[in-house]
């Protein structure tokens, strides 16, 4: 039996020193085995048709046209020469929350951002990084050189979770900064005004970016497992509250369900991918499944 440690487990990864090592292990562990590039096709748009010639890839044949005309035509695409992945990482205080032996939401997001950065640069594409709370605190412009990856990982390692968030304003700011169309991936618990969040997300779509929402939550925030009288510590400027959990559980879960439904529905209506991530889950679960589905859609 293989007794080697499970490097895809977030707790195990958190105990390893250096995001560079963690990113390498994540990519080599599952991402690299999915497809030559899980991001292939992200920035490709249909442009026109041309007639099929022997040797062409039949995956691009438009069979609907063939059924009507009895002729083979291929879809042609406008392809950007270089994929740009803009990553937005929420560094507000609520992202520091952790329950039990789980890593914090911020640490979990760091691992995913590091792995995807490593993957994108490994495929000679470009990645940028914006760290934000109630404003953009650090912005690394997209680049694809190995030294850029080192700088990006260093910034991730030295940035603490702090302050309160204002996601709507931040997204409007960044939507205007990102001049070249690409893929915008946002990593957050999204604990902010849903209307303002969705308005900011739609701004990215208006600018013709593709958008992915990575919603990072701690299992305790979802399941509310508290039983005894509990002091709930306020974050992002809110006061501490001593409460009986059983008196709050139903109202809390109803409010959370309403919040999640609103966010998911808003993303679906704007053609935005919504990817839930739990800090107690191994990273080879929902993330690798999502990347595999994206790879399949690009074929």
Short descriptors:
Rossmann fold, two-stranded antiparallel ribbon, vWFA_dom_sf, DUF58, DUF58 domain-containing protein, 299 residues, alpha/beta, 10 strands, 2 domains
Please render the helix and strand layout as text.
Blueprint: H1 10-14, H2 19-31, E1 44-51, H3 63-69, E2 73-79, E3 84-90, H4 105-122, E4 126-132, E5 136-143, H5 146-158, H6 167-177, E6 183-188, H7 194-206, E7 210-217, H8 219-223, E8 230-232, E9 241-243, H9 245-269, E10 273-278, H10 286-298
Task: Give an overview of the whole structure.
It comes from Aquisphaera giovannonii. Residues 48-255 form the DUF58 domain. By secondary structure, the protein is α/β, with parallel strands linked by helices. It has two domains: 10-38 and 81-298, Rossmann fold (3-Layer(aba) Sandwich); 44-79, no CATH class. Helix content is 41%, strand content 21%. It has ten helices and ten strands. The strands form three sheets. It has a six-stranded mixed sheet, sandwiched between helices. The chain has a two-stranded antiparallel ribbon with strand order 1-2. Strand 3 (84-90), helix 4 and strand 4 (126-132) form a beta-alpha-beta unit. Helix 4 packs antiparallel against helix 5 and helix 7 packs parallel to helix 9.
């Amino acid at each position: 039996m293989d007794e080697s440690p499970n490097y895809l487990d977030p707790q195990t990864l958190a105990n390893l020193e250096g995001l560079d090592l963690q990113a390498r292990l994540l990519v080599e562990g599952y991402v690299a085995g999915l497809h030559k590039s899980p991001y292939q096709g992200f920035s490709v748009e249909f442009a026109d048709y041309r007639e099929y010639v022997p040797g062409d890839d039949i995956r691009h044949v438009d069979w609907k046209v063939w059924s009507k005309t009895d002729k083979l035509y291929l879809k042609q695409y406008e392809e950007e020469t270089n994929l740009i992945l803009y990553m937005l990482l929420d560094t507000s205080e609520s992202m520091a929350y952790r329950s039990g032996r789980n890593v914090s939401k911020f640490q979990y997001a760091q691992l995913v951002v590091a792995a995807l950065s490593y993957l994108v640069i490994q495929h000679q594409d470009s990645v940028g990084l914006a760290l934000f709370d109630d404003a953009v605190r650090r912005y690394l412009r997209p680049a694809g050189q190995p030294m850029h990856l080192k700088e990006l990982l260093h910034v991730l390692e030295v940035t603490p979770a702090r302050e309160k968030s204002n996601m709507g304003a931040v997204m409007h700011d960044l939507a205007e900064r990102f001049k070249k169309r690409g893929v915008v991936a946002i990593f957050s618990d999204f604990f902010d005004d849903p209307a303002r969040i969705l308005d900011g997300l739609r701004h990215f779509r208006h600018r013709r970016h593709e958008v992915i929402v990575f919603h990072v939550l701690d299992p305790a925030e979802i399941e509310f497992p508290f039983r005894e009288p509990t002091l709930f510590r306020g974050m992002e400027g809110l006061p501490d509250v001593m409460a009986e959990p059983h008196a709050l559980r139903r109202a809390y879960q109803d409010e959370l369900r309403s919040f999640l439904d609103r966010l998911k529905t808003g993303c679906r209506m704007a053609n935005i991918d919504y990817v839930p991530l739990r800090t107690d889950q191994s990273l080879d679960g929902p993330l690798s499944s999502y990347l595999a589905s994206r790879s399949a859609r690009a074929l």
